[in-house]
Write a structure and sequence with these properties.
Belongs to the CdaR family. By secondary structure, this protein is an alpha+beta fold. It has four domains: 3-195, 2-Layer Sandwich (Muramoyl-pentapeptide Carboxypeptidase, domain 2), CATH 3.30.1380; 200-334, Beta-Lactamase (2-Layer Sandwich), CATH 3.30.450.40; 352-491, Reverse transcriptase/Diguanylate cyclase domain (Alpha-Beta Plaits, 2-Layer Sandwich); 498-593, Arc Repressor Mutant, subunit A (Orthogonal Bundle), CATH 1.10.10. Helices cover 55% and strands 16% of the residues. It contains 23 helices and 16 strands. The protein has helices spanning 8-11, 33-47, 49-74, 80-93, 121-130, 139-152, 184-187, 197-208, 214-231, 236-247, 271-281, 311-351, 356-366, 387-397, 421-438, 458-475, 485-488, 492-497, 500-521, 525-534, 539-545, 550-564, 571-593, and strands at residues 12-15, 20-23, 26-28, 98-106, 111-118, 157-163, 172-178, 250-254, 263-265, 286-293, 296-304, 375-383, 402-406, 409-415, 443-448, 481-484. A five-stranded mixed sheet has the order 13-14-12-15-16. Strands 4-5-7-6 form a four-stranded antiparallel sheet, covered by helices on one side. A hairpin with a 4-residue loop joins strand 1 (12-15) and strand 2 (20-23). Helix 9 runs parallel beside helix 12 (311-351), helix 12 (311-351) packs across helix 16 and helix 21 (539-545) crosses helix 22. The radius of gyration is 32 Å and the shape is globular. The chain starts with 7 loop residues before the first helix and ends with a helix.
């Protein structure tokens, strides 16, 4: 593979139905350069220029490392140089910057690369918000190159920017050297890639703020403690404990769509009761602060206090909100990454790309359910509500059930589920009730697939559940409906090969006049037809089952044939009616369970 053969059309895969964009096999999200510029501005204003530099360098490194792994696996590279050039080509195709490599020399003990960057979005956005800088500002670009080479080249390298449009140079010039061949000044950039660099910068900031008043010093100390705790992997409740201890108030973090907080720490015994009452009545007991990132609200920090908050408390809260915004944003990114792994695994199962033992091993590394047991897939589609919101609600309601998002659908995998239909119906009824009570303005379709007795069948369970959801959407578009595989197993083959709208139209065309007659005359001709078909068209057996005389039954059948305009003496007529009845009773089952 040659790097110059990489073209955008071959690298990009856009699925307009699912809303998924893949670039070189990795899921991508299109964001405007302007939006990223505002995010960069907020990061710098929040963390200061020096700390933001380290944050953005590490962010770029993660992007480059991921891209290096993806492209290295995707193509057969005969030369390392072509793989390196491909990284530059990918950076250009992504619209980040135009890359021109001028020097590329690789030996056993030395790596040297020089090149130019043109139209760097990062330099343009930095200048737009902060003006020209005294130093180079293409930090994510530097990090990207460092991360890409960390994945593809075995020795430690140093990447730095000699010229930059962000400091009013004509173009950006980047240089890459092996660590052994870099100067002390060039090696300085390596400290930003260390996990402890942000903590060191916070220590320096704290020392610089010693001259400020006690309130500011105290708020900075709390901010430092919470940031350290976040970096060390503290949970949300542990972070809230630190904040609660500093404020001497009970605190919670909410999301507007959940019925309970996602994190809390109540300092007094009565505070939980008061919090619930205040949530209902919106009393002054609650002090609310939006947790935002990139103009999107991730949650709300709620401080519980009967007294007005002091200036020092306000300062502490303001800085704490920053920590929670980074924490929640990181958790969302981690969750989305996990969803993608699970979604890709289901695709792999359905494509049968791996042997059974390998699939089971991989499943145990990705999922929480036991892949060796019986499992069912539940698919939930929705309108007038975001899948992420529904997922967050269900993840808190069903803590022991696997729950993730695939193609804008919420999926649950019910582990070691019983084959008993009544058990599944009861579970489905409870699930439907919960989402309907919580999301009153939304409509849902909930389908439960066939029981998967082994892992290879879980893809079939997913497909069945998805087909059921599609059918429900056509059958009752304005209503929340739920059904299990057993309700549809007689017509599942037709669902797999026919548009659900056509199936519904078919049963109405075949049975429409008969159903209308029964409703207007309080008759039971539909039941008579069902018994007749179940007895394979045997007149004597059907009449006996219905407790009718032979002439009485023949009169009914003549009326049925007249309304249906079908000949029940031939197989084709009986088949059409039998299929229409199966579809009709599947829909009646939904109405009865509602």
């Amino acid at each position: 593979m040659k790097a110059n053969r990489l073209v955008f059309e071959n690298a990009i895969d856009i699925n307009p139905r699912s809303g998924i964009i893949k670039f070189n096999g990795n899921r991508m999200i299109l964001k405007s350069a302007e939006a990223l510029g505002f995010f960069r501005r907020d990061i710098i204003q929040t963390l200061n220029m020096e700390r933001a530099k380290g944050f953005l360098l590490r962010y770029g490194w993660a992007c480059g490392y991921s891209a290096g792994g993806s492209i290295e696996k995707m193509y057969n590279w005969k030369e390392l140089k072509e793989l390196i050039r491909a990284g530059a080509a990918i950076h250009t195709l992504e619209g980040v910057v135009s890359v021109q490599i001028d020097v590329l020399e690789i030996t056993n003990d030395k790596f040297e690369m020089e090149g130019k960057w043109f139209h760097s979005y990062e330099a343009e956005e930095h200048v737009r918000h902060f003006g020209f800088s005294d130093e180079s500002v293409c930090w994510t670009l530097i990090g990207y190159v460092a991360g890409f080479l960390a994945k593809t080249y075995p020795k430690e390298i140093v990447v730095f920017e000699e010229k930059c449009r962000g400091k009013c140079d004509d173009y950006c010039k980047f240089v890459v050297r092996t660590k052994e061949h870099a100067t002390e000044e060039q090696l300085e950039i390596l400290r930003y890639f260390q996990d402890t660099s942000l903590a060191d910068e916070l220590d320096n900031t704290f020392n610089e703020l010693k001259s400020l008043n006690n309130s500011i010093v105290h708020s900075d100390t709390i901010h430092k403690q919470m940031t350290h705790a976040m970096l060390e992997g503290y949970t949300l409740n542990q972070l809230l404990y630190l904040l609660s201890d500093a404020l001497q108030c009970s605190v919670t973090v909410e999301r507007r769509y959940l019925m309970k907080p996602i994190g809390y720490y109540f300092i007094h015994e009565d505070d939980e009761r008061l919090y619930i009452e205040a949530s209902r009545k919106k009393k002054e007991f609650r002090h609310e602060y939006d947790i935002m990132t990139m103009k999107k609200q991730l949650g709300t920090l709620v401080i519980l206090s009967h007294k007005a908050l002091t200036r020092e408390q306000e300062m502490i809260i303001e800085r704490a909100v920053t920590v929670f915004s980074i924490y929640l944003y990181t958790q969302i990114q981690i969750a989305q990454s996990q969803w993608k792994k699970k979604s890709d695994f289901l695709d792999e199962v359905m494509s049968q790309q791996s042997p059974s033992e390998e699939l089971i091993k991989k499943a145990r590394n990705i999922f929480y359910f036991d892949p060796s047991k019986n499992n069912r897939v539940i698919v939930i589609t929705m309108e007038q509500e975001e899948p992420e919101i529904v997922h967050s609600f269900l993840a808190t309601e069903y803590l022991n059930v696997e729950c993730f998002i695939k193609n804008q659908e919420v999926l649950l995998i019910l582990e070691d589920c019983k084959k008993d239909v009544q058990y599944m119906s009861n579970f489905l009824s409870g699930l439907s009730k919960r989402v309907m009570e919580r999301f009153k303005q939304a409509t849902f379709q909930i389908g439960v697939g066939k029981n998967a007795e082994k892992l290879e069948e879980i893809g079939n369970s997913y497909n069945d559940a998805k087909l059921i959801c599609q059918f429900l959407r056509y059958a009752a578009p304005q209503q929340t409906q739920a059904a299990i595989y057993e309700n549809f197993q007689h017509i599942m083959l037709f669902l797999k090969t026919t548009n659900p709208r056509e199936l519904l139209q078919f049963y109405k065309e075949v049975l429409g006049q008969l159903l209308e007659y029964d409703e207007q005359n309080h008759a039971t001709l539909v039941h008579t037809l069902e018994v007749f078909l179940n007895h394979s068209g045997n007149v004597n057996q059907t009449a006996k089952a219905l407790n009718l005389s032979i002439p009485g039954f023949r009169y009914r059948m003549e009326k049925i044939e007249s309304l249906l305009q079908e000949d029940m003496r031939i197989g084709d007529g009986r088949f059409r009616c039998h299929l229409a009845l199966k579809i009709y009773y599947a829909i009646k089952t939904l109405e009865n369970e509602k």
